Amino acid sequence: MSETMQAAVYERYGPAREVLRVTELERPEPGPGEVRVRMRISGVNPTDWRVRSGSQGSEPPFPYMVPNQDGAGEIDAVGAGVDAARVGERVWVWFAAANRQHGSAAQWTCLPARYAVPLPDDVSLELGASLGIPAMTAHHCLFRDGDLAGRTVLVAGGAGAVGHFAVELAHAAGARVIATVSSDEKAALAAAAGAAVVVNYRADDAADLVRAAAPGGVDRIVEVAPSANAALDLASVAPDGVVSIYAADGDLETPVRPLMVRNAVLRFVLIYTVPDEWLDRAVAGVSAAVAAGRLTELPAHRFPLADIAAAHEAVEGGAVGKVLVDIP
Asked: Distance between CA atoms of 210 and 206, rounded to whole angstroms?
C-alpha cells in the first residue's frame, strides 16, 4: 500500500481561507532526473499567494495544486540518472511549483535535480527556505549587466526579501549600496544587511537624499515599485545605468528623453521566464554567497502547515520579514 503525506492543497483559485486546506496525499516517487525532498520548511513568496488568488488564470491547470515555490529539507530518494550519493543531502529548493502540481508546502515533493541545491551543514534550514525566488531574483537584477565592484546600487524596498538579498549580494560584490525603506524598523534591517545609506522614500526630499549620496547617479537600481518610484529612479540613474524592475505596481509612465540622453536601460525581470543560463548563474552566485556567509536570515514569521492560510495572508498583508511554514 502506498504511503501518504500531509500537504496543503487548493482545487480552485480564491481567498486563502476559502480555498486552502491540509489533506493526505499519496507520497510522490521521483521520476527520471528527479529527486524527492523531505521538506522541513516551506517559504512563502508574493507570487505564491498571487497564483493561488487567481491572478494567473481562470482555473488551476491540475485537479489540485500544492502551493509554494521555495523551501528546504533533505533528499531522501532519487530517480533514474541522478547520483544516488545525493540521498541524505541537505538542500534548498526553487521552482517547486513552477508549472508543476506539487509545490513545497508538503512533507515531500519531487522536482528536477537542479532545482534542489546543496545547503552547507552550517547553514540553517530557515535561511535555505528563504532563498529561492527572492535571492535568485536579486542576483539576476544585480548581475545581468555586469560586475558591481566599485559601482553604486540603489535598492528599492531594502527590507523586503528580494531587497534584503540584493543589499547583501551587492555589498558582498564590492558595491556601495543605497536602500530605500518606509519605516525605522525597515531602515535598521537594510543597514544591518550592508546598506551604506538608507533613505525613507516617503520623505519629501527622498530624491535629494539619494542624489546627495550619489552625485554622479547610481549604476544599478533594483526596483520593486516602478510606477511609484518613476520620478526617483529618473532623478537617480547614472549614465549607462540600469533599472531592473522585478515587480509591477501599475502602468509605468516616465519621460523618455532624459533616459535616452543617459543611455539608461529599463530591464524587466520575471525570474520564471529567465533563460536557463542565467538561472544557473543565479543559483551558482547565491550558493557561493551562502557558503561564504554573506547571506543572512530576515526576521521570521513561523506558521505550522495547518495554518497555511494564515501564512499566505501574512505575505499578502505585507509582513516585514520572511514568512515560513514548518512542515511536520
From this structure: 6
